[in-house]
Amino acid sequence: MKERILFVEDDPAIRDLTTRGLEQAGFDVEAESDGHQGLLRFRNGSFDLVLLDLMLPSLGGVEVCRHIRSESTIPIVMLTAKTDTSDVVLGLEVGADDYLTKPFEMPELLARLRAVLRRASDAQKDEVMTLGDLEIRPDAFVATKAGRHLDLTATEFRLLLELARSGGRVRTRDALLENVWNYDYLGDSRIVDMAVKRLRDKIEDDPRNPTRIVTVRGVGYRFEA
Length: 225
Description:
single chain; five-stranded parallel β-sheet; 12 strands; 41% helix; globular
């Protein structure tokens, strides 16, 4: 069965060219041109990934991302032509799993999308991990805190699992990009930092003063069991 992508992009040239490229690569693509229609299509359909432009008419990409993330853990990849890094950070902060700047080459886009989809479906067969009041079940992609289910995206779960497996060792941002995001290139550490922030919001008693995921300045992060 083909994996289904919802593609929301207001530029008709980019939308048509990218849609054809994705379909030729074997994806089933539904395309919309504005934020409201994209959100409505998402709510009325069944998709494996959302490819979302940052600048959209009627409802911006960040707001669309925020709405989708409040309803689903579906992978979200954002496209941006803006050079203002604050917009990229905001998109990651509200729940995007990755982003790609325009103009982009189709092989790079396909590699990013396949990596995100692979992460979302890669349920490793490991034993249950119990770390204090946290319980992690890799086989089911489920984590609980004090018996309460944690609503984690696939990326957040893999990040938690990678940190928990580290045995108290520091994990650099580059190592996390490679092992959690499956990237072999020099990626943007903001992806890691924003995912850590979202994860802390869900597992820490006080996210502003984290005691589980500790920042090691200038290096990366360490998980305290």
